[in-house]
Every structure is written in C-alpha cells, then in structure tokens.
Design brief:
- Strand 1 and strand 2 form a beta hairpin.
- The protein has two domains: 67 residues, Fe,Mn superoxide dismutase (SOD) domain (Helix Hairpins); 104 residues, Iron/manganese superoxide dismutase, C-terminal domain (minor pseudopilin epsh fold, 3-Layer(bab) Sandwich), CATH 3.55.40.
- 50% of the residues lie in helices and 11% in strands.
- Helix 1 packs antiparallel against helix 3 and helix 4 crosses helix 8.
- It has eight helices and three strands.
- It has a three-stranded antiparallel β-sheet with strand order 2-1-3, sandwiched between helices.
Length: 203
C-alpha cells in the first residue's frame, strides 16, 4: 500500500471529556481509514501517484488524471486533514498559545479570545460538512473555511491549525450542538505542534 493510516499519538480516551473515546475510535479507525483505503484505490490505477506524498497530490490536483481526480481530492484531502488533526491535539492541551503563534495571533486578531470567537463563528457557519483552518498568507494569519475534505494546500496555503466540523467528529457527544463542540475543542489544542506548523508555514 502506498499510504497508511498513522497511529494516534495518544490513547482513544486521552482527550476525554472534550472528545469521547467512542468518537475517537470511529473517527480514526473507520473514517480516516476509509480515506486512506480509497486514496490507495486511486493510486493502484495510476502507480506513479504513489511516488508522491499526499500533500503533493493535493497541492496540484490539476496534474491528477481526471478519472481519479475527485477521489484524490476528497480522500487525499481527508488523509492530509486528519493526519494534521490528530497531531495538533493532545491530552492536557489547551490554554493560551505561547511562542511565535501566540504573538502572531495577538498581532493579527487583537487577542486570543477575539481569535477564538472569529474562528468559532466562521467554522460554525460552514454549511454542511467541512473544516475551519488557520493559514498564514501575505505575512498575516487568516481564518478560512473549506467544504468537505478540501485542503488549503490546494490553494498554495499551509494549514497551521484546523478543526473538523463533519458531524462524525462531534455528533455522538454534542449531537447538533456544533458551537458547543467548537468552544470545547480549544481545551485539547497542542500549541507546541501548532507552533511547529507555523514555523513551516513561514518558510
């Protein structure tokens, strides 16, 4: 297989009570695995694609053969987005961001609380399934939302942080209360990893 499901960097129950164990098992073992399986199915038809990273595939969708382009967009994006998602969370996370990302958030949004409010509002309004992302563009941080499993990488932007608002990410615990999930999610953010991603985005 060209691509593999990465293991979670913590136990399924490690993000309780913010994200419940049952959701983590379903989200990682079933949903993320399905994206990997489907992406590998596309690569089997065009083996040269397997020589690229998922990020490289998503970055240049126009170069993907038309018969599998939609599959790569949806499932390659799903693989990239979820791999990031697991890494930017950790047990005992949250709190006020420190380091370069903390300073940049204050510069661009006024305060961390103002940033959270804007991010949560934008992501709560994402119609149907999708993601809210924080990206670095033109020397400033920007909040962008994407439908389905689309990635900012396809627009030439590197996602520093992202939250999944597909219902499978929160429905078992929060039901239809997406804003409640969004507000709680900040308690598990791994700001050390977000700082690393911010450094990558600035290169």
């Amino acid at each position: 297989m060209a691509f593999e499901l990465p293991p979670l960097p913590y136990d399924y129950a490690a993000l309780e009570p913010t994200i419940d164990e049952a959701t983590m098992k379903l989200h990682h073992d079933k949903h993320h695995q399905a994206y990997v399986t489907n992406l590998n199915g596309a690569v089997e038809k065009h083996p040269d694609l397997g020589k690229k990273t998922p990020e490289e595939l998503v970055a240049d969708l126009g170069a993907i053969p038309e018969d599998v382009r939609g599959v790569v967009r949806n499932n390659g994006g799903g693989h990239v987005n979820h791999t990031m998602f697991w890494e930017i969370m950790k047990p005992g996370g949250g709190g006020t961001p420190t380091g370069d990302i903390g300073e940049q958030i204050t510069t661009d949004f006024g305060s961390f609380d103002d940033f959270k409010k804007k991010f949560n509002e934008a992501t709560a309004k994402q119609f149907g399934s999708g993601w809210g992302f924080l990206v670095y563009k033109g020397g400033k941080l920007e909040i962008v939302t994407k439908p389905n499993q689309d990635s900012p990488i396809s627009d030439g932007l590197f996602p520093i942080l992202g939250n999944d608002v597909w219902e499978h990410a929160y429905y078992l615990k929060y039901n239809n209360r997406r804003p409640e999930y969004l507000a709680a999610w900040w308690d598990v953010v791994n700001w050390d990893e977000v700082n690393k991603r911010f450094a990558t985005a600035k290169k």
